[in-house]
């Protein structure tokens, strides 16, 4: 069974940093691009960032470009999101998701499955 | 950025009724549109990809259609577990999501 498990969320002050992790299992992790997608409280979904299977290609949404960094460790089957210079508007549940189809370059994908999400709250 | 507009915002129906959800793109996305279902406190679940293909394990009562800028998700006969939020997403350009349609019990 394919599983994605996020961790690392919490409360942080504006301007602070946080690192999210996503542990993957049940599939060949290095063969798939991965993404982070977020959902602000009672709001819709926003794609944040994507990374290719081998990690050589990354992409970011305009709202996080220059502040967030996506990375992966294929030896640990783990995806990361380093978030710096956090703003109140970054408050959201952050989901990691597998990118499909494999034949499409990230981020031109749909997302399946998704993890259960981790809540990031940016507040003073 | 491609904007996806979903309508209606809320759909009030009874179990057994047919649900028709719409998603309109601000630019041509060809057939590169997906639909997700989200229940309270849960992550989104992929239902339909590339406009009309059901994802693994999705019941046949869910179907998708459309191309270009206009897409439809149809639930042929609503089951109690189908009352939820539904989002569309395009992958023709950098991914964007629609604002969602809530299917609620009438």
Sheet with most strands of chain A:
7 strands, mixed
Helix content of chain A: under 10%
Provide the low-confidence segments of chain B as ranges: none
Q: What class, by secondary structure content of chain A? A: mainly beta
> Which strand-content bin applies to the residues of chain B?
over 45%
Which structural class do you get from the secondary structure elements of chain B? mainly beta
Using DSSP, what is the number of strands of chain B?
11
Kindly report how far apart the N and C termini of chain B lie: 35 Å
- Dominant shape of chain B: globular
Radius of gyration of chain B: 13 Å
Tally of contiguous helical segments of chain A: 0
Helix fraction of chain B? Answer: under 10%
Task: State the order of secondary-structure elements of chain A, H for helix, E for strand.
Answer: EEEEEEEEEEE
The interface involving the most residues is between:
A-B, 21 and 23 residues
Oligomeric organization of the protein chains:
heterodimer
Estimate the global geometry of chain A from the Cα principal axes. Answer: globular
**C-alpha end-to-end distance of chain A:** 40 Å
